[in-house]
Design a protein that fits this description.
98 residues, mainly alpha, globular
């Protein structure tokens, strides 16, 4: 099974939990001035972040410490995960490049 397939399958299995955690964390910071559009943008960003972190640990085997160092501490993104998946077969590349 390819890394893309493994990533998709793990999200299929854990998406309800990931989405609920993202919803809970997004809802915690809602104020009366938060618009629906702002809420949804923040929610989708958190879902993407948490999904990327989940794939990084469960499929790619990255440690939490390693994930925290990616992008100068701002976290790992879906694009980062795709880059790691795409380069996983290259002998010259490894996860330390991140």
């Amino acid at each position: 099974m390819s890394l893309d397939e493994r990533a998709i399958n793990t999200l299929n299995e854990y998406f309800p939990s990931i989405a609920q955690i993202a919803l809970d964390h997004t809802y915690e910071v809602v104020t009366e001035e938060t618009s629906f559009a702002e809420f949804m943008e923040s929610l989708l960003n958190k879902i993407n972040q948490y999904a990327a972190e989940h794939v990084a640990t469960e499929v790619l085997g990255l440690s939490s410490r390693k994930i925290e160092t990616i992008n100068d501490g701002t976290g790992i993104s879906v694009d980062d995960i795709q880059d790691l998946i795409d380069t996983a077969g290259d002998d010259d590349e490894d996860y330390d490049a991140y």
